[in-house]
Amino acid sequence: MSADEFDLIDRIRRRAATTRSDVLLGIGDDAALLQVPAGQALVVATDTLNAGVHFPVDTAPADLGWKALAVNLSDLAAMGAAPAWCTLSLSMPDAEPAWVDGFLEGFLRLAAMHDVALVGGDTTRGPLSVSVTVHGFVDPARALRRAAARDGDDIWVSGTLGDAAAALEQWRANALIDDALRERLDRPTPRLALGRALAGVARAAIDVSDGLLADLGHVCVASGVGAELEVDALPASDALRAGFGGDARRHLQAAGGDDYEVCFTAPEAARDAIATIARNVGIAVTRIGRIVDGQRVSAFDADGNEWHPASAGWRHFSA
Amino acid sequence: MSADEFDLIDRIRRRAATTRSDVLLGIGDDAALLQVPAGQALVVATDTLNAGVHFPVDTAPADLGWKALAVNLSDLAAMGAAPAWCTLSLSMPDAEPAWVDGFLEGFLRLAAMHDVALVGGDTTRGPLSVSVTVHGFVDPARALRRAAARDGDDIWVSGTLGDAAAALEQWRANALIDDALRERLDRPTPRLALGRALAGVARAAIDVSDGLLADLGHVCVASGVGAELEVDALPASDALRAGFGGDARRHLQAAGGDDYEVCFTAPEAARDAIATIARNVGIAVTRIGRIVDGQRVSAFDADGNEWHPASAGWRHFSA
Fold first, then answer.
1. What's the pTM value of the predicted model, to 2 decimals?
2. Any idea which positions bind Mg(2+) 2 (chains A, B) (predicted)?
3. Which of chain B's residues have a Cβ under 8 Å away from the Cβ of A138?
4. I need a surface site. Which of A147, A236, B176, B300 has the fewest CB within 10 A?
């Protein structure tokens, strides 16, 4: 069974109806017309997921739909932005209506949770690939930029680390994948409420997609600083603790990617404010290190010995 | 030879430096920060090109870069919008620096011609695919919407029709491809100056990507009207006339896609204004028919006989 592109677009349009009054014109014209609030900067991020590269080929369509939007919303969270709209470009070898419906179920469920309107996009024939662009708003003076970390800042991270990488490791080993870990891989939670509340309080932020060490490295390069990480202070879920111990766990937490937690820096004076924010938004945050002078990102274990990962995070195109 | 994703992004960032003052933060953070002018609506369009589906696999990288941006800018032209920014998501089987440089040469040359800043994106491993999202501005009261055509409107089209489809036909037939036709397929010209000048003068507009009859059909459905097309009035290039005659040419012009001309409707009273606009922006426009009551799009030859194409335009996923 196959469907025509125009039928597909109609199918998507019917399901993507929005009540946002700032959508002047949504799906169905050459472009969308949108209204950005006065005094706010427009925040734009794009991420693409390719089958077999960014997700296992047996990922359920609803999980893929969720994840494709989640990884993009996570970028808005890491800027301290409020999300508003998205576009979706979906390339598929064929256009199975059941597959598209499943995909939209996951995609639009997450969109509805954050009042994100799907305002346009493209459906094309090709190898399975999903490209999403998200739009949001932030007061530019309060945006969380990578370049804003300062010597002496605390380093914080939300939630727990290593779960998604652990699920991938079980999947690669053909082992039974723990449900809680798989849920974290398939349905990452963009930390939007946390990011918005941190805008104007925290300094630098980044979402953990390539792995904590790699992502913290991006912050350090952009800010011209170094970092010291306490690898045994990294927050771990019960599921991760149950399945992985010692250095294997440290490695998943420090170098595994795909968690989509927010890593941020803030001055010591903001500790109470950050604890209050975490309580208010209901997301745990953990202090995991300190920004230091220099250019190096180093990690130390509980005994104060320097710790080295086997690799520094997920890199596409790596030799 | 292969390059690392982060090196690639640096490579792109270095070449994409912009002087636009409305780019508060460009490539290199979790998201871009952008400033939309007061009183203007944000206009957003996304289009993806997949190897072997939307372009011949032997397309030169610079041509692909140009075209990936051009087809998106064409959507802004058809809204009457001024372009401002774009994001680029590039999936490649490997990351040949020479290929990427060629791609960027074409992409950034067209971007520079229209002062479009590349503000973000994504490079990933996967089958060759290019997804671009473009952003522009328009006064929402003057935007050219598909739903705005009215009974009695003239139907106009810019430039010439059928050239891109003719080049594809020669390519498919393994014939020698005429240079002028190939240029039209590989390097379409988004009609941005025309679209902006028509905002507030024309009524409905669409860019001709799926084929004139199909695209005019979209306008008619959105507007609740029909259309009568004079198929022998469709503007043809010298190259098309030299290579194709009779019904073959009519078919390329009426049903071939990929020309990225602007088809628009306007009241009779606007004919002089439109002629002046066309002269000012240096793009020919031709009256090719009339919007009528009803729901049908029909075409007539010079003798007044109804003319039927063999197919109604390019449709992905067609059975």
1. 0.92
2. 47, 75
3. 33
4. B176
